Amino acid sequence: VDGVAPSRFASLWPAFAGSLLDGAGEKNYLEPDFIEMLAQIDVFHAPVVDSTQTWAEWHYFNYHDEAGRSLYVSINALAFEEDRAASGYSRGMVLFQYVDEAGERTRMVGVLPGREIAASTGSPDLLVGLNAVRFDAGSYRVNVALSDSTGRPITLELDLAATTQPWKVAFFHRS
């Protein structure tokens, strides 16, 4: 299928007689709505697995600043052919890593059963146990609740405004 955006055609051929105006389809193609585009491309898909493959989808968020702090969070949904819950997934995994100004590293991993996963195929929303990514009005709201082997909890709440510029983040609370 070939096509042309009328305004682009007219800019290349100004001597062309006639009035060429872009319709809604051309405008959406030439200047897509960034927030709408994110909402469409970040959706989860129904897992498709067989004996030759494993299915995995995830959200991840990275942050680094001039003070040397860094944060990495990933919330994953995995599916294996032989072990799937009604959600379609086998396991959920939450990864958390934070490095403070002094270089002290905190890492935690949580693995949850597939029955605790709710992944939307219509929006970027993902729930893995108490850990969630929600996309609302152009913002990603990320909540992480993990604990280490001693029971020390980490909770994280991020509100990331989706822009075409680097995102600004709020930091987590360590109990």
What does this structure look like?
By secondary structure, the protein is mostly beta strands. It has three helices and ten strands. Strands 5-6-7-8-9-10 form a six-stranded antiparallel sheet, with no helix packed on it. A four-stranded antiparallel sheet has the order 1-2-3-4, with no helix packed on it. It is extended.
Salient structural properties:
175 residues, mainly beta, six-stranded antiparallel β-sheet, four-stranded antiparallel β-sheet, 3 helices, 10 strands, 13% helix, 40% strand, disordered C terminus
Please tell me what the overall shape is: extended
* Spatial order of strands in the largest sheet: 5-6-7-8-9-10
Percent range for helical residues?
10-25%
Portion in strands: 35-45%
Averaged pLDDT: 83
Radius of gyration: 22 Å
Encode the helix/strand succession as letters. HHHEEEEEEEEEE
Low-confidence stretches: 167-175
Q: Oligomeric status of the shown chains?
A: single chain
Give me the secondary-structure category. Answer: mainly beta
